[in-house]
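Anyone else keep sequences and structure tokens together like this?

Example one:
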Amino acid sequence: MTKDKDLYGKEREFPLEYTITRDSLDEVIFVEVAVDAMDMIKGNNANPYETEGIKWKGSQLARLVFDISSIGNNEPKPNENPKIQGNKKSF
């Protein structure tokens, strides 16, 4: 988590990093993204931190594209990104 100012100038904690675990190395994956400003817009300017049912209201799908060409044979080495955790690979 990291501290930053929210839409109203109040300091809050926000996620700094995400871990995505996959069974295979894919060049493209899809995720759902939500940002407080998007939630506020979709919630007719309702406070996204305090109004019930506003969180994730403005979420959108996003496409993440990875250049995995330098990995070679799609098998990463241990201790390198993507990290191998058991039989799953994490980005």
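And example two:
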Amino acid sequence: MTTVNIMRDGKIIKVDASTVENTQTPEQILTEERYQMTCTKAQGKTAIGAEVWAKVLTIADDPEMPWGLKIIIDDAQVWNRLDTDMEALIWAMDLTQEQADDLFRLAMELD
């Protein structure tokens, strides 16, 4: 039996994957996938490439940029797709939600 983590009533639980496919909407399936999207900073930077990361670093050097975003860019060693901080980093990388999903899918495949 293959299990997956899903969110039910605000709690993450493990369930049989075959039952999830039959009972969840596409939006729910995407949300569940996003809960499981985690990569290291190195994997994320490799997936987005040098050009996009250079833009992020330029943003981080802007004196008008919020301090919290600078800390995320400099210090976050693990990226979790649904973290509030990650939304700020996605914004800094100028990615759509779909592009961010694809970034995580690729990054999680990298060593």
